[in-house]
Structure formats: structure tokens, C-alpha cells
Design goal:
Structural class: alpha+beta
Radius of gyration: 25 Å
Order of helices and strands: HHEEHEEEEEHE
CATH topology: Nuclear Transport Factor 2, Chain: A
CATH class: Alpha Beta
């Protein structure tokens, strides 16, 4: 009887030990999978922003919208002077198809750096900020100066769509711009958003970010993203005041 009890005790003890080892191995595998998935998300989100830069540089904004942006109705494209809301508005302002002939002599480049990316705990959305230093836009013309330096920030919300990350909201904050070969005027930078907005008036007009000048104070805008579980726990870069 005693030997039987000892045998049962050893068997139960062995089962418990084996179960614990399996549980720990499973937890370890799950953590490894989570880490690998997170690393892949970060890589894909950085690549997505870089693809946006490359398409924009080639004046293929229509392709950028088709390949990189969400198909949702509430996508938003914002600049210092207002917000373009929805696919049709964004396509008309930013994503019109242009002929290759019309791009002759034009040049633009907005490299991105200093990325901070946060993926939601539920992996349904993500957020990121980038800086574009020494961006340059212009065209070859008869005038001595036809190219401009541009320094800008990006605040971007992303959404997972059919297993792929897509741009949901993009807010571009222009800090300063000036003609190549000249000095910045003492009054500040010289982007005339009045002329830009004449291309198409924004759906929501708002001076949401000020260009640098002798009187502007440095602020942490856009805010770097913070960890969050689901979209309702955080803010959007196209929310009022963001």
C-alpha cells in the first residue's frame, strides 16, 4: 500500500513538473512571437513612410494614395492652414494624376528621420512622428533662385487594413522654408499658405501650426506617441490642438 502511494506521488509530481515546463516554454514562445511581430510592425511602418516619401518625390501622389493610404472614408491630410477630409478631397488637393511631361524640371525631396513609433496593444492602429530636415523643392527655371529648403514635421496615425499597415491621418507641420542661396528673412520663414490653399480650399480651415519667426516659442508639437492599448485610449494627430 505504501509503495503504491509513493508511486502515485512520484507520478503526480512528475506530471506537475512536466506541465510547468510546457507552460513556461509556451509563454517563452509567445513572448518571442510577440517581439518578432512588434519588430516587423516597426519595420513595415518605417517602410510605409519611406514609400510615401519616394512616391511624393516622383510626383506620384496618386500612386501614394492608392498603395499606401487607407480605403476608409475618414482619412485626413492636414497642413498648417487646415484639413482635407475624405478620399475625394485629398485626391483633388494632393493626389491628382499628373503627366510625366508636366514634371519636367521639377524636383522635391523630403527625407525623414528621428522616428518614434508606437503600435497599439491590440495591433489595430499605430502612431508615429518623423522630422524632415533639409527637404528641398523647386524647378529649373530662368530665375536665379527657384529651389527652396524646407524643414517639416510629420504626425501620422496608421490603421491595420487587410493585414497591412496603411496611412490613416497625416499632419504635416511646416517649420521654415527659404530660397536656396539666400538667408532667412528676419521676419521669419516664407511659405505663403494663402497661395497653396488656393489650389483647393481645405474642408476645415484652421491655422493649426505657426511657422518659425522671431516671436514663436518652441513647443513639443507633434507630441511623440505614448504606449496605448486601443484607439480610444489615445489621440489623433488631426485632433483639435494637435
Amino acid at each position: 500500500m505504501l509503495s503504491t502511494c509513493l508511486l502515485i506521488g512520484v507520478t503526480i509530481s512528475g506530471c506537475c513538473t512536466g506541465h510547468t515546463q510546457v507552460t513556461e516554454a509556451l509563454k517563452s514562445a509567445q513572448e518571442a512571437l510577440k517581439s518578432a511581430r512588434h519588430a516587423n510592425d516597426m519595420h513595415e511602418l518605417n517602410n510605409l513612410m519611406s514609400m510615401h516619401v519616394w512616391y511624393h518625390a516622383a510626383l506620384l501622389n496618386d500612386v501614394d494614395i492608392e498603395k499606401n493610404w487607407s480605403k476608409r472614408d475618414d482619412i485626413v491630410f492636414a497642413q498648417n492652414f487646415g484639413y482635407y477630409i475624405g478620399p475625394e478631397s485629398i485626391k483633388t488637393y494632393y493626389g491628382n494624376t499628373v503627366s510625366r511631361g508636366s514634371t519636367k524640371g521639377a524636383y522635391m525631396w523630403h527625407p525623414t528621420t528621428s522616428s518614434i513609433i508606437v503600435v497599439a496593444g491590440d495591433r489595430k492602429t499605430a502612431k508615429g512622428v518623423w522630422y524632415t530636415p533639409a527637404g528641398i523643392i523647386g524647378a529649373f527655371k530662368d530665375e536665379p533662385v527657384s529651389f527652396n529648403w524646407m524643414f517639416e514635421k510629420y504626425g501620422v496615425d496608421f490603421v491595420m487594413e487587410d493585414g497591412k499597415w496603411k496611412i490613416w491621418h497625416m499632419h504635416i507641420y511646416t517649420d521654415v522654408a527659404w530660397a536656396v542661396g539666400t538667408k532667412i528673412r528676419s521676419s521669419g520663414s516664407g511659405v505663403d499658405f494663402t497661395d497653396i490653399s488656393k489650389i483647393q480650399a481645405p474642408d476645415k480651415v484652421e491655422d493649426n501650426y505657426k511657422q518659425l519667426s522671431p516671436t514663436t516659442e518652441m513647443v513639443l508639437v507633434p507630441r511623440p506617441p505614448e504606449p496605448y492599448q486601443t484607439w480610444s485610449d489615445t489621440w489623433s494627430y488631426v485632433d483639435p490642438g494637435e
